[in-house]
Design goal:
The relative contact order is 0.14. This protein is of the alpha+beta class. Helix 7 packs antiparallel against helix 8. The chain contains 13 helices and 19 strands. The strands form 4 sheets. It has an 8-stranded antiparallel sheet with strand order 14-13-10-11-12-15-19-16, sandwiched between helices. The chain has 4 domains: 93 residues, Rossmann fold (3-Layer(aba) Sandwich), CATH 3.40.50; 68 residues, Dna Ligase, domain 1 (2-Layer Sandwich); 128 residues, ATP-grasp fold, B domain (D-amino Acid Aminotransferase, Chain A, domain 1, 2-Layer Sandwich); 93 residues, Glycinamide Ribonucleotide Synthetase, Chain A, domain 4, CATH 3.90.600.
Length: 435
């Protein structure tokens, strides 16, 4: 099959790597891709936001199936130009994309259907929002309504801090139109985890769980990021807890979508927190998470391409999703200054020490040539580019280092041992992922 994968981050490199393991893959295009995906297929210089151009490329190259990685093209309605050309694409409809595209609408959906989530209210007026925040206990959570690259959530420890955040969001438009409307909600106490589910519009299947690290600094301090590390499986998440989550949240979500006459086709991400009262929804995402995908895909004990085909052909009910008994730890290497301003174009050194020569047997899997699970390490590129044949930084999150092991601690040790060999100007990473 000829596949077009849309996106350019670490999630897309992980998906490209998973697709490359399939014997059914004949050609892989990645638009626009990065320095890592270029080793697995052909990068195409079309941005993920250029919906009509992507559809034209898919028609011209007779692409069998297009897979969408990031949220922005889904929310923008990428299915429409593809379906007009009778092209197969894996992405939820624009109608379904409100689950991630609008925190306000997603909260209304949860409330309407009785799915557990934090008490909340939404505002477009700064004065009203600030007055409501004063009535709440601190800490409290403030969220930008629209897409903000995973950075539109702030936790206010005090009422003056809440007022400043609201001023930044509503008045100063920190995230543009996305923060012109905000959700203010109770701060839930518990342990967070991410759960991923595939759906073909009729049936759904659990794909696995991961734990994401959002805060920039060790000890869960500093600003929120798009995700600075992840682990899978989640060590404290028992089968009983997972079953309760499915019963109280996952199944009711798909029942509610059917009740709203919304056929959901693609991947649905449940951002969850386990509290003393059980599981609550923090957020939905209408795609795989980043960097959770990087720890999940290596654990998949099934053909990723066949999963996407099963979704496209509405035969997911007969598809078996199994996970390898393997622990994975992902540490994100970020540019100095991320998630705010950061420098691009810095030369990345040390990758050659982790990348085996073509065809040379090695337990280290860094370029997608080996079979999943055979080795102890994967390196997925996120914000990278090639400049005169040299890999340089091109984003806030630069590299994802994934260690494999029989336990989280073993996987963690291997990931950090590899990090010691990599260098670039301003390189930043947390030292407590998986600890």
């Amino acid at each position: 099959m000829k596949i077009l994968l849309i996106g350019s981050g670490g999630r897309e490199h992980a998906l490209a790597w998973g697709l490359a393991q399939s014997p059914k893959l004949s050609k892989l295009y990645i638009a626009p891709g990065n320095a890592g995906t270029a080793q697995l297929g052909q990068n195409i210089p079309i941005g993920a936001e250029n919906l009509s151009e992507l559809a034209q490329f898919a028609r011209r190259e007779q692409i069998d199936l297009t897979i969408v990685g990031p949220e922005a093209p889904i929310v923008a309605g990428i299915r429409d130009p593809f379906e007009r050309e009778n092209l197969k694409i894996i992405a939820p409809t624009q109608k379904a994309s409100f689950l991630e595209g609008s925190k306000v609408q997603a909260k209304a959906f949860l409330h309407k259907h009785g799915i557990p989530t934090a008490r909340h209210a939404s505002f477009t007026d700064f004065g009203q929002a600030a007055a409501f925040a004063q009535t709440m206990q601190t800490p409290l959570v403030i969220k930008a309504d629209g897409l903000a690259a995973g950075k539109g959530v702030a936790i206010a420890q005090t009422h003056p801090e809440a007022e400043q955040i609201l001023r930044d969001f509503i008045i100063s438009k920190k995230f543009g139109a996305a923060s012109g409307r905000v959700v203010i909600e109770d701060f839930l106490v518990g342990r967070e985890f991410s759960l991923f589910v595939a759906s073909d519009g009729v049936s759904w299947r659990l794909l696995g769980a991961a734990q994401d690290y959002k805060r920039l600094l060790d000890g869960d301090c500093g600003p929120n990021t798009g995700g600075i590390g992840s682990i899978s499986p989640v060590p404290w998440l028992t089968k009983e807890m997972l079953d309760e989550t499915v019963r109280k949240i996952v199944a009711p979500t798909f029942e509610a979508l059917r009740a709203e006459n919304i056929g959901y086709e693609g991947i649905l991400y449940f951002g969850l927190i386990w509290t003393e009262n059980g599981p609550y929804v923090i957020e939905y995402n209408v795609r795989f998470g980043d960097p959770e995908t990087q720890v999940l895909v290596p654990r998949f004990d099934f053909d990723l391409l066949e999963l996407y085909r099963a979704i496209a052909e509405r035969r997911l009910e007969r598809f078996e999703t199994k996970l390898k008994p393997l622990s994975t730890v992902c540490v994100v290497l970020a540019s100095g200054g991320y998630p705010e301003q950061y420098e691009r174009g810095c030369v990345i050194e040390g990758l050659e020490a982790l990348t085996p020569p073509c065809g040379h047997p090695s337990p280290v899997l860094t370029d997608g040539r080996g079979a999943g699970g055979e080795g102890h390490l994967l390196v997925f590129h996120a914000g990278t580019a090639l400049k005169d044949g040299t890999v340089v930084t091109a984003g806030g999150r630069v590299l994802n280092i994934i260690g494999f092991g029989s336990s989280v601690s073993e996987a963690r040790e291997r990931a950090y041992a590899a990090i010691a060999q990599i260098r670039f100007q301003g390189m930043h990473y947390r030292r407590d992922i998986g600890s």
